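Hi Y.,

Following your request, here is the sequence exactly as I used it, all 186 residues.
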Amino acid sequence: MKKILMIVASFRKNSFNRQLAEAVGELFRGKAEVKILEYGDVPLFNQDMEFPTPEAVGRVREEVLSSDGIWIFSPEYNSKTPGVLKNLLDWLSRPVTETAGSRESAVRGKCVTVSSVAGKSAGAGVRKDLSELLSKMSMNVVYGEGCGIALGSDAFSTGKMDLSEEEINMFRAQAEELLRAAGQMI
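Below is the corresponding structure, written out as tokens. Let me know if you'd prefer a different format.
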């Protein structure tokens, strides 16, 4: 069974993007194992402390390496990628050993897709930003700039997000494309 690793770019306990990741995870039931990556202990990237690799970085790299596909769920901060996610991606893009070349990262060639829950923009800025960044990291970006949801003010006041059948179908198509791409990995 394929392994899908979900990365949520918000550490808020009940963030909308975490809610979406959990809902999307249900779409993989019986088709793939799904895990949400916990990475709150990953230090800020500093090349001076790159080797020996910090324990938290080694742990997340192993989880990435053992996955068949990655799905990133990100809020939009000033139309761009949140710092916590950018920091994680910076670590993951680096060589896995001191003697490895720049082409030997934990994410090189990995299938990845992106989604966002945000305000009126549906996270269009962060989805575009991430698609460009992930491509530069030599990842296989699946489903282009991904799918986004624009939340109404009621969601911000209740803290809850409800998906319509149309939105569920949109994410189902994205999930199927990620599984197809992950199945073609060598």
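The CA atoms of residues 25 and 34 lie 6 Å apart.

Thanks again,
Q.
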